[in-house]
Amino acid sequence: MDPLHQFSIKPIFTVVIGGTDVSFSNSSLSMMAVVLIVFSLMTFSVKSKSLVPGRWQSLAEIFYEFISRMVRDNAGHDAKPFFPFVITLFMFILCGNLLGMVPGAFTFTSHIVVTFSMAIFVFSMVTLLAIVKHGIKFLTFFMPHGVPLWMAPLLVPIEIVSYLSRPISLSVRLFANMMAGHTMLKVFAGFTIMMMGSGTALGYAAGVVPVVINVALIGFEIGVALLQAYVFTILTCLYIKDALELH
């Protein structure tokens, strides 16, 4: 079976409005499931507000404290109003990555259109924030303090290209890692089916090897899912800091 078949977007309910296909797909279903999971975890787990938290409340508090510290350490105290946005972004990406590890589930973070949409939203938000906060002074971001004026024709274009490439690098990093990991899992699973399909003792014995590799890959992929959510979020914090402080 084609290892890329798992990334195909399939409509569940076909809807066409004004000639535009806005069908409810498996990707939409996965995103709605993640929203429901995050909402349930962060709302109902702390509903009791127990002094001695249970397991679910402890998990919610761990996420809260982790992201709060991340925002404070990487974006500064002035970025506190952006905490709700940052924790929402982190939980959405993390749960989307982990949901994709469930057999039969759809990994929407393996699609560049999803990751780029999130990245371009972050980019637009921090750019607008910088312009509103600093006005015309925002342009000094592309000419670091202390750099000789004669280097401006060379440095400014480099800084502008670097700045505009942020949403591309942010989105491609997440999309490529999730897509590559799931493709490898599918390839080695195919090896197992192919070898054991021979019906011979040697085929069954050889089929154990890709199974062992797949188990190791699943553990590795879970680590990648956590890491990529962290990287996307911490870069967002750094971009917010740049917008607030123009460093």
How would you describe this protein?
The chain is globular. The chain has a two-stranded antiparallel sheet. It has a two-stranded antiparallel sheet with strand order 2-3. Helix content is 68%, strand content 4%. It is built from 7 helices and 4 strands; from the N terminus they run E-E-E-E-H-H-H-H-H-H-H. The model has no long low-confidence stretch (mean pLDDT 83).
Give short descriptive properties of this protein.
247 residues; mainly alpha; two-stranded antiparallel sheet; two-stranded antiparallel ribbon; 7 helices
Physical arrangement of strands within the biggest beta sheet: 1-4
The total tally of domains equals: 1
Choose one word for the global shape.
globular
Gyration radius over CA? 22 Å
Class from helix and strand fractions? mainly alpha
Biggest sheet record = 2 strands, antiparallel
Number of helices: 7
Percentage beta strand: under 5%
Q: In angstroms, what separates the terminal alpha carbons?
A: 50 Å
Helix content: 55-70%
Q: Tell me the total number of β-strands.
A: 4
**Quaternary assembly:** single chain
The overall pLDDT average reads 83
Order of helices and strands: EEEEHHHHHHH
Poorly predicted spans: none
